[in-house]
Amino acid sequence: MDELVAAARAAANGAYAPYSDFRVGAALRFADGAIVTGSNVENASYGLSLCAETIAVAKAMGEGRWGGLVEIAVAGNGASPLTPCGRCRQVLHELAALGGTDPLVHCCGPGEVRQVRLSELLPAAFGPGSLA
Ligand code: THU
Predict the structure, then answer these.
(1) How many Cα atoms within 13 Å fall on the side-chain side of residue 54?
(2) How many Å lie between the centroid of ligand 1 and the Cα of residue 132?
(3) Of 73, 51, 70, 54, residue with least CA distance to 62
(4) Is 53 noted as a catalytic residue in this protein?
(5) What is the pTM of this model?
(6) Residue 125: what are its φ and ψ, rounded to 5°?
């Protein structure tokens, strides 16, 4: 857990967030132990900004990781533990659902880290199976 949280905190330092100054890092742990990170990438056209979790999922899936997501850590430079935004919950759910996992999410604040399951953050989720 410590390694994953440290990876998310380190990723936040690499964020490109000149407009909000809110730097976010996400770290995904897979069943084989691999960790894939992402940081938020903002845009001068503000609405085009990409969240850290979405970047991490895109990196992982682009490397062929379609499933096996067992743990997630998210960290920001705010005052309280960061919980993923609604869109990111949906994006994370897609990857988790592909492998049939319900990852534990470590929501990191400056001091405390709170744990919650992805299914608690996004109950009754729409996912790949919903299209059948
Ligand atoms: N942000 C994330 O990267 N992840 C979240 O779950 C919440 C918000 C980013 C988007 C934007 O660049 C900045 O934080 C402020 O909203």
Answers:
(1) 13
(2) 32
(3) 54
(4) yes
(5) 0.98
(6) -70, 145
